[in-house]
Amino acid sequence: MPIRVMIAEDERLAREELAYLLAQEEDIELLPEATNGRELLKLVEEHEPDVVFLDIKMPEMEGIQAARMLTSRKQQPLIVFSTAYENYALDAFSLNAVDYLLKPTEPHRLKETLQRIRKRLNEALPAADGKDSPPTAAPGPGPKVTKLLIEDNNRFVVIDPQTILYAVRDERVIQIHTLTDTYTSKMTLQQLEEKLHAYNFFRTHRSYLVNLHYVSELVPWFNGAYNLLLKEGKRVQIPVSRSYARELLKRLEGEQL
């Protein structure tokens, strides 16, 4: 899975430089950027990054204060401070920061930081089997559902999974677009993906799940990312992040669309 990274930096050139360096890494997915601490807190709630690269001196709310608030979240992103100031290192590491990068960012130091991030994230994954107890077989996927029951605005709606074009996360809900209607559900995109495991759906982006049966075109966009066009309705454009593009191309080559 890609590492979802958010940059919080009020200086445009510094943001662009860091984003450029991070974009060179195949396993990094760049999320929308924040220009101050308050904006960062809002974007973290919307996009749930794995890692935040955080400047210390920012308007409205400084990085240290924003980091303290992030540590109170149930799902805490890893924090990397990226700053021109050396004298905040103790404060940074008291917040369990992964690293403390001084500007201008040196590529070799950033690679060291990314190695630490990958190690932290791997350590956080559940072990495949435990040494203290005998391993148990992981449950297989459930049976193929022929109808999907969702709660939409205090009513229950039955949907044929094969009619779903795509689903997209919209803040705390998901919108499910079918051939004829659009429904809103409080389930997560991950939960919907699990329910549709037996069908030809693919996660093209952290916020999008697409039925590959309706794919019409893949159009190159920027820095290895694509836009995917659906052949039904108004030829909706779906973003395909760089991290998912290679696997999607493999899937499309092997599918009868």
In short:
The chain has helices at 12-23, 37-47, 63-70, 89-94, 107-124, 189-195, 242-254, and strands at residues 3-8, 28-30, 51-54, 78-83, 99-102, 148-151, 156-159, 164-170, 173-178, 182-185, 201-205, 208-211, 215-220, 226-230, 237-240. By secondary structure, the protein is of the alpha/beta class.
Portion in strands: 25-35%
Give the spatial strand order of the biggest sheet: 2-1-3-4-5
Please trace the helix and strand order, writing H or E for each element.
EHEHEHEHEHEEEEEHEEEEEH
The CATH topology name of the largest domain reads Rossmann fold
CATH homology-level superfamily of the largest domain? Response regulator
| Number of spatially distinct domains | 2
Q: Give the biggest sheet.
A: 5 strands, parallel
Distance from N terminus to C terminus (CA atoms, Å) equals 25 Å
Which runs of at least 5 residues are low in confidence (pLDDT < 50)? Answer: 127-141
Second rung of CATH, namely the architecture of the largest domain: 3-Layer(aba) Sandwich
The CATH class of the largest domain is Alpha Beta
Question: Structural class given helices, strands, pairing?
Answer: alpha/beta
Q: What share of the residues lie within helices?
A: 25-40%
Shape category:
elongated
